[in-house]
Specification:
Keywords: Signal. The two termini are about 15 Å apart. This protein has no helices and 34 strands. The protein has one domain. By secondary structure, it is an all-beta fold. It binds 2-acetamido-2-deoxy-beta-D-glucopyranose (4 copies). The site of one 2-acetamido-2-deoxy-beta-D-glucopyranose (NAG) has 7 residues, from β9 and β12.
Length: about 475
């Protein structure tokens, strides 16, 4: 099969590709990460509960009104915030009315993991160029409107990542933190693929709620790189307008440390509208941080919104940025992994795909590089698996010889300007397959520890092949 071949397959029945087994090692699944969910547990009352972000025991509870927030009006009718609020502890705002943060007003708690919650029965408006900045920001309301230039920004303010995860890179390579995608490492060892912080939170990507991780250090004496991205949760019964920025990006590591990984954004709303940006991207650093996780559970989403889970840029190795995170559409059950054209040799990990229900589609695009490392992995969706614009999916691990078998099951497989790479045996079960300027690559030699790989051909069932 020629490389970069122009191939168009329409398969009447099933297509199976078997390649001789090569290698794989058992890949430990990351522990399920649900920690921090208790932060959503909330108190009821027309009060503002303040407590220290560092000690959750015996919180220092204050009962505050709209006036205590330096606002006008009441949280049971409409409260207008007119002046900047600088917080040094968590904030919980509860009321039966509405809240308006007026233009250019900011509400800030610049402490890692500091939590600001707005729980209103009515609407919340964030005026143009107004900002809410904290480690975790939660909105529960009937409607949320963010005007031009406004922002809800948890960038670089994440608290601790879940326990027993390895998102913060060990070693002194100044590698990026991991979360939705792995962080990049600029340490050159082409015999083995190397990466910085690892991924976590796959099993909760539909309702992501983990902080991003710090980027790595360059020496035992130096500080860690960029901090991890924070968390944003929006639960709105009616409409969310985003004409500003909703960000949970990883922090900047400079050339002295890795970029932090992106955090988590979870939006549930009837409709999501606007032309703003929702981003949980990895931070720039010596090695770029991995992208975070975004899930949007909305009946409709306006196309003009920019949604990004890209990896961070790597100052130490520009060709190898952080890996993309995950963007899940929880209404259509569609997973997208895209790196916004940031080139990378670092992988986003696919673990188990659920079967009850199956997801509808999975798309890997714009330079994202996905690895399905588990023995017996199966990537299965009801509809399409699509690879566009230099997307790639790698099945298996090339450097440790062992038998492994993979399955790709879908109605359609669409591959355009992209690559599928296989270490081991891959069974593709699809009704229709379209390949444009793409290849299925099984030349594993360069990735094997001892340089002795295998090279094999893919046998397509000729009777089922229709060439244009
Ligand atoms: C908001 O308050 C309601 C009670 O009115 C409660 O059930 C809900 O959990 C609260 N949400 C958040 C995010 O605090
Ligand atoms: C707001 O309404 C609740 C009951 O709905 C009441 O308990 C509370 O005192 C009211 N707060 C103010 C400031 O009016
Ligand atoms: C969010 O905060 C980060 C860190 O302070 C800052 O660099 C970035 O410009 C902010 N983003 C927006 C959209 O305000
Ligand atoms: C990525 O590149 C494609 C062309 O290959 C372009 O259409 C697209 O706009 C680019 N995306 C970004 C986010 O730069």
């Amino acid at each position: 099969m020629p490389r970069h071949a122009y191939i168009w397959f329409v398969l009447v029945g099933y297509l199976c590709i078997f390649t001789p087994s090569s290698s794989s090692i058992q890949y430990d699944k990351n522990p399920n990460t649900k920690s921090g969910e208790s932060a959503l547990d909330s108190k009821i009352g027309t009060t503002i509960h303040k407590k220290s972000p560092t000690s959750s025991s015996s919180p220092d509870v204050d009962s505050l009104s709209c006036q205590d927030l330096d606002g006008d009006g009441s949280l049971n009718t409409t409260c207008l915030l007119r002046s900047q609020l600088n917080l040094n502890s968590d904030l919980y705002v509860y009321g039966n009315g509405n809240l308006e943060i007026l233009p250019y007003v900011s509400v800030m708690c610049l402490i890692e993991g500091c939590t600001v919650t707005f729980n209103l029965s009515g609407y919340v408006n964030i005026g143009h160029h107004a900002t809410v900045v904290a480690g975790t920001v939660v909105f529960s309301a009937s409607n949320l409107r963010m005007d031009d230039g406004s922002s809800v920004n948890t960038t670089s303010l994440g608290g601790l990542p879940p326990p027993q995860t390895s998102g913060v890179p060990a070693g002194y390579e100044g590698a990026g933190g991991g979360h939705g995608g792995r962080g990049a490492s600029c340490w050159k060892n082409r015999k083995k693929n190397v990466w910085g912080g690892d991924v976590y939170g796959w099993s909760s990507l539909q309702e992501p709620w983990s902080y991003g991780s710090k980027g790595g250090r360059k020496s035992p004496e130096s500080r860690y790189g960029g901090n991890g991205g924070g968390r944003i949760r929006v639960a709105v019964t009616d409409v969310v307008y985003v004409n500003g920025f909703v960000t949970a990006d990883g922090g900047f590591g400079g050339s002295a440390g890795g970029g932090g990984s992106g955090g988590s954004i979870f939006v549930q709303a009837g409709k999501l509208k606007g032309y703003g940006t929702i981003s949980a991207a990895g931070g720039t650093g010596w090695g770029g941080g991995g992208g975070g996780r975004i899930s949007l559970d909305c009946r409709s989403i306006q196309d003009d919104l920019k949604i990004s889970v890209r990896g961070g840029l790597s100052i130490g190795c520009p060709e190898n940025g952080g890996a993309a995170g995950t963007y899940f559409n929880a209404d259509s059950l569609t997973l997208r992994v895209g790196n916004d054209n940031v080139t990378t040799e670092t992988e986003t990990i696919f673990l188990d795909f659920p079967s009850s229900p199956f997801w509808s589609h999975a798309t890997v695009e714009n330079n994202a590089r996905v690895l399905a490392p588990l023995l017996w992995s199966r990537i299965q969706v009801r509809g399409q698996i699509s690879l566009y614009r230099r997307g790639s999916i790698i099945f298996g691990l090339g450097y440790f010889p062992m038998f492994s078998e993979f399955e790709l099951v879908a109605e359609e497989l669409l591959v355009s300007d992209s690559t599928i790479k296989v270490f081991g045996e891959l069974r593709v079960t699809v009704k229709k397959m379209l390949m444009w300027n793409s290849k299925i690559d099984q030349t594993a030699v360069d990735e094997l520890e001892d340089g002795k790989g295998f090279v094999s051909d893919v046998e397509f069932p000729k009777t089922n092949l229709v060439l244009p």
